[in-house]
Amino acid sequence: MKKYGPVGKAYQVLADALGHFNTDDGYAVASHVALSSLMALFPFLIFVAAFSGFLGLKQVAQSASELIFDVWPKQVAGPVSNEIQAVLTQPRGDLLTFGVVVTLWFSSNGIEAMRAGLNRAYRVRDMRSWYWCRAQSILAVLIGTVVLIVSTFLIVFGPLAWEWVVHLAPVMEQFSYKANIVRYGVTSLLLLIALLAAHLYLPAGQRRLWDVLPGIILTMVLWIVAGAAFGAYLARWANYVSLYAGLAGIMTAIIFMYLTAVIFILGGEFNASLMRVRRLSRRNEQGSPVTDE
């Protein structure tokens, strides 16, 4: 096997990742992930609203949706967020009825779509039973709900606690401008934890933290770049209203979700390619016969 320098190895990994993304029908799978995730978003937030109301935290659900859409371009988040806020303002008393089962099932469809995308990206065949995988997806929705509610609760009531701190120690008032930094920091941390859990536990097989971390970092960086670029494109050049009329809002959301899904799958492909190159390098160093996979 030919030895490569750092630049050569980086090119080899990227070329391998992009090549497998194309042969694995990455664009088609990204469409599936994007549409399933968008369809799962409403049921998930409805469940969050119902669960929050059950706990007596009715305002937390609306703040939770705002927390989710903080990382979206405002041109995309605006129309979708408005519709979700309209849904969340409706009273929800069906938490303990059959409705919650249906809501959980549709919410877990987004997790299942991501599982399918990552299985292809990591080039593994999932031999686990479908009911075990579905139970894992539903558990992920439940854990995500609790984590989102707790994090939102801390963000919502954080300013009240901060005012109490400032009242006791007025010198702390000079740090008040950091409130938004904390808000975005919490959002980024939740996103990082969600990506780690997705790459480690959703696809079949076992991977170490260091195996999945490079692709996760690449995903988050590309998401930031893509979000800024897509937001600038919508603000300066795109005129979806003339093309799609009343569907402009949902079309921008679908396109944005598609971009994020492509990047999400590319992160898995990048990890798989990096793991493959490392494995081939170790075999080469040990003098073992090497065959490309």
TrEMBL record:
Keyword Membrane: yes
Species name: Pseudovibrio axinellae
Higher taxonomy: Bacteria, Pseudomonadati, Pseudomonadota, Alphaproteobacteria, Hyphomicrobiales
Subcellular location: Cell membrane
InterPro entries: Virul_fac_BrkB (IPR017039)
Membrane topology type: Multi-pass membrane protein
Keywords linked to the UniProt accession: Cell membrane, Membrane, Transmembrane, Transmembrane helix
Secreted found in the keyword field: no
Domain of life: Bacteria
Ranges annotated as spanning the membrane: 33-57, 137-161, 181-202, 209-235, 241-266
Pfam family name, one: Virul_fac_BrkB
Protein name per Swiss-Prot or TrEMBL: Uncharacterized protein
GO cellular component terms attached to this protein's record: plasma membrane
